[in-house]
Design a protein that fits this description.
There is one protein chain. With 403 residues, the protein is of the alpha/beta class. Helix content is 39%, strand content 13%. It is built from 14 helices and 13 strands. It has helices spanning 6-10, 33-43, 55-75, 88-100, 121-130, 148-152, 177-186, 206-209, 233-237, 262-276, 286-312, 340-348, 362-367, 386-401; strands spanning 21-22, 83-85, 108-112, 133-137, 159-165, 190-194, 213-216, 227-231, 318-320, 330-335, 352-353, 356-357, 375-379. It has a 7-stranded mixed sheet with strand order 2-8-7-6-5-3-4, sandwiched between helices. Strand 3 (108-112), helix 5 and strand 4 (133-137) form a beta-alpha-beta unit. Helix 2 (33-43) packs antiparallel against helix 10 (262-276), helix 3 (55-75) packs across helix 10 (262-276) and helix 10 packs across helix 11 (286-312).
């Protein structure tokens, strides 16, 4: 694709020099040198709690504000709404508990069977703790689609919150979140969007999506291991989580427990800047460069995915489960006569990393008839090249034909 140089991109990732073909990005991507260097530089610098008196305090303060601005550019969010935490799971548990303080018997919470359990179980447990009702939206088993009508069917005037994924980490399905948001807001409810698997593969604008809160994980798109959410400032102002008495009640600080991991936040900023640097053309703003870069990545990955699916269609013994017309470059494959776990080991022996399982998307795996064992997941990334695809196809072909 014109404007996207995968060889130049790959040169930034030291891990790729080990020689493996990585199709395990949905579980966590490889990391470019500049991100590791940013983390290391922060750890080896004088640092203190945030403040504006000493150089160490100012360094910490600038790192935090810089990371909020970077994520705001990535998600088209207000920096005042950017909240950091240990993981998407931790952040969702925290928000669910805080919101549940305003729920009670008769209120309804909607979750979907397409989602990762981190966007299901926190809401289920929070609802149960206050006697609220949980309603389930399912997806079409044959097509893998979660349509707005699937959500509409379980909405009511009593709905308080709907939790939905922007992209399935199991089969890649990308629901029409904006259309779902209009339905959710039409009954006066909040929309909580899990963007963990969407953010690495598509341009995100939380306002256009209609997300009241949007959560993602930088380590899925080249960054360090942490979680972040952003959303509507007015919504955050109305949420009051448990906190220590002396800690700030301002947003976003009221949602962040204890001292932030400054080294990881420095890595987040480096990650966003790295992504922006992949833009094929100039732009006056970092947001503009991000849109250009991520659009180029999406086009490149879709081209590889189409090529891969076309080639795998001719391999007997494979069962594809990723069928939605709008999806990330993520494939879930089963086998007619062999186990996915054996395929994972077969590929690993040939230097191809593609894991098998249900990947915490247990409800989706059950709907697909795969039980908790799941299937083989293949996730393409911006550093995937044609030779990786060739090795994967060769490995799968030899696996299904081996006695």
């Amino acid at each position: 694709m014109t404007g996207y140089d995968v060889d130049a991109v790959r040169a930034h990732f030291p891990a790729l020099k080990e020689g493996a073909a990585h199709f395990d990005g949905p579980g966590g991507s490889q990391v470019p040198s500049v991100v590791a260097e940013a983390v290391s530089a922060t750890l080896s610098s004088a640092i203190a709690n945030q403040g504006r008196v000493t150089p160490a305090e100012r360094r910490a303060d600038d790192i935090v504000s810089g990371a909020r601005l970077a994520v705001a550019d990535l998600l088209a969010a207000d920096p005042r709404s950017v909240v950091f935490g240990r993981s998407m799971t931790q952040l969702t548990f925290d928000i669910s508990r805080a919101l549940a303080k305003t729920w009670g018997p008769g209120d309804e919470i909607v979750v979907t069977r397409l989602d990762h359990d981190a966007n299901i179980r926190p809401w289920v447990l929070a609802a149960e703790s206050v006697g609220a009702t949980v309603r389930w939206a399912t997806f079409d088993q044959a097509t893998g689609r979660l349509d707005p009508d699937h959500v509409r069917a379980v909405l009511s005037p009593r709905t308080r919150l709907v939790a939905v994924t922007a992209a399935s980490n199991l089969i890649g399905t990308r629901p029409n979140v904006a259309a779902i948001a209009r339905l959710v807001h039409g009954v006066g409810a909040l929309l909580y969007v899990d963007g963990v698997h969407a953010a690495p593969h598509a341009v995100v604008d939380i306002g256009e999506l209609g997300a009241d809160l949007f959560v993602c994980s930088p380590y899925k798109f080249f960054g360090p291991h942490c979680g972040v959410f952003a959303g509507r400032v007015d919504v955050l102002e109305d949420i009051h989580p448990d906190k220590l008495l002396p800690s700030s009640d301002d947003i976003p600080e009221r949602f962040e427990l204890g001292t932030l991991p400054y080294e990881l936040l420095a890595g987040v900023t480096a990650t966003v800047d790295f992504l922006a640097g992949l833009a094929p053309g100039p732009s006056e703003t970092r947001r503009g460069r991000l849109i250009s870069a991520i659009s180029a990545i999406e086009s490149y990955e879709d081209g590889l995915r189409i090529d891969l699916e076309t080639r795998l269609a001719g391999v007997a013994g494979l069962v594809p489960y990723s069928r939605a017309p709008r999806r990330t470059p993520t494939l879930l494959l089963g086998f007619t006569h062999k186990r996915s776990s054996d395929a994972q080991r077969w590929l690993a022996d040939r230097g191809v990393n593609a894991p098998a399982g249900s990947f915490y998307a247990l409800e989706a795996s059950l709907v697909l008839g795969l039980g908790s064992a799941g299937a083989l997941r293949i996730g393409l990334a911006p550093y995937t090249d044609q030779s990786d695809i060739d090795r994967l196809v060769d490995g799968l072909t030899s696996f299904v034909t081996a006695p």
